[in-house]
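Minutes, structural biology subgroup

Action item carried over from last meeting: produce the C-alpha cell record for EmrB/QacA subfamily drug resistance transporter (Conyzicola nivalis). EB confirmed the sequence was re-checked against the source entry. Recorded below for completeness.
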Amino acid sequence: MATTAPTAPQQSTPSPIHRWWLLAVLALAQLMVILDGTIVNIALPDAQIDLGMTDGDRTWVVTIYALAFGSLLLLGGRIADYWGRKRSFIVGMVGFAIASALGGLALNTEMLLAARALQGAFAGLLAPASLAILTITFPGGKDRIKAFAVYGAIGGGGAAVGLLLGGVLTEFASWEWCLLVNVPIAIVAIVGALAFMKESRAHGNTRYDIPGTLLVVAGLASLVLGFSRAEEGWARFDTIGFLVAGVVLLAAFVLVERRVSNPLLPMRVIVDKVRGGAFLVSTLTGAALLGGLLFLTFYFQIVLGYSPLHAGFASLPMTLVIMVCATVLSQLLPKIGVRIPMTVGPIIAAGGLFYLSFITVEGNYVLEVLPGVVLLGIGLASLFVPLQNVALAGVEEHDAGVASAAVAATQQIGGSIGTALFTALYTSAIASYLADNPPAPTAQLEAFVSGYSAAFVCAAALMLVAAPISFFLIRPSKADLLKNVDAVHMG
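Output recorded by EB:
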C-alpha cells in the first residue's frame, strides 16, 4: 500500500557559506565515483599479472562496475527520495568504502570482480543522492549555474583524474591502492556530510516499484552481456539472444512504468523534449568517453611501453583543458545558453577521437596523441558543464532523486555498453589484421593499434550523433537556466 506522509514544513536552504562547503563535499563524492570508473584502468595490466586474469576478465573489471552502477541507479534514486537523501548519501559512502577495501585486498579474480560489482551497487545509491542534494541546495539563479559547472567539470575531468591518480598509485605503491584510496576519501566526505548536510525526502506516494526495478536491471544487464559476447561473434546465438532479450525487457519496463501508480522512472521525467535530449546525449557521451579512455590507456602501456605514472601524466592535458574550459563556460552560459556548446562540443570531441584513430606503433605523443586529447577535453567540457543542469531543469522535488539517477544512469550504462561494443570491434580488428598481413616482428603490436583505431573511430561516430540531438532537441531559453525550481520540502 502507498503511504502518504503529511507535507513537512519548509525550511530554508543552507546558509551561503555552508552551501559552498556542502558543494565541496558533494564534489568530492562525485570525483570518487567518477574516477573509480577509470582509476583501475592503468592498474589493470599489473592486476592481470598478479591475479592471473584473462583479457576477458580484465575488461569485466571495468564493465561490471559500470553495469552495477548504471542498472541500480534508478532504484538508488528512489531510495534516496523516499528514505532520505542525506541518509542514502552516508550509507552509500560507507558501503562504497567497504567494497573498495575488499577489492584492494582481493586474492583472486572472482573476489576483485565481486568487489567491483559491490562498488557499483553502492555508487548507485550514492550518486543520485549527491546530485539530488545539489539540486535542492542550489534551487536557482547564477549560483546554481556555478555549482553545476563545478559538478559537471568533475564529471568530465574525473575520468582523466582517475587515470593520473591510478598511475601515481600503481607506480609508487601498488595496484591495490587504486581501490584502497577510496577509504580515506570516504571518511572525509562522511565527516563533511554530517557537518553541512540537511536531510530531505519526498512526501506523498512512496511505494517502491519492484516490477519496474527487476525489468530495468535485467534489461540493461542483458544488453551489456549481449555486446560483451559479440567479442566472440555477432551471429552467435547467445549474442543475439541477450541483445533481443534486453530490448524486450526494456520495452516491457516502459509499458509497466506507464501503468503503475508509483513508477521507478516516471515518464514525466523523460518525455520532456529538452530533458530527453539531454539523456540521449549523456548516453552517447558515456559510451565514447569511458570506452575510448580505456583503449587509450592500453595503447600507452602495452604499445608505447609507458609506466603507469607516465601513462597517467599522458592523460593529464585533457583534465587541465576541461577545468579551464569549464571555468570559462560557467561565465558564458547565462549569456549564450546551452544549445551552442552542446552542439559544437560533440563535434570537437568526435574530432579528437577521430584524430586518435591515426596512432601508430612508433607513437609520437606530441604529434599523434596530444592534439586529440586536447580536442577531446574541449568537447567534453562543452558538454558536461551544461548537461546535468539541463537534464534536471524543471524537475519536481518529489522526483529529484530519480531524475538525478537517470542522468548518471545514462552515462554509466552508455559506458558499459560502449566498453563492451568497442572490445568486440577491437577483437575483430585484431583478427582481421593478423589474417590479412604476413607474420612480422611488430605484427602483434600493429594488430593492437589496428584494434585501438577501430575503437576510436566508433567512439567518434557515437559522439558525432550527439550534435544533431543537441541542436534540434535541447533548446531551453537563457531564462530557464536562471529559473528557480519548485519549493523543496525539508524534513
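Discussion: Residues 400-436 form the longest helix (37 residues).
Next step: EB to file the record with the rest of the batch.
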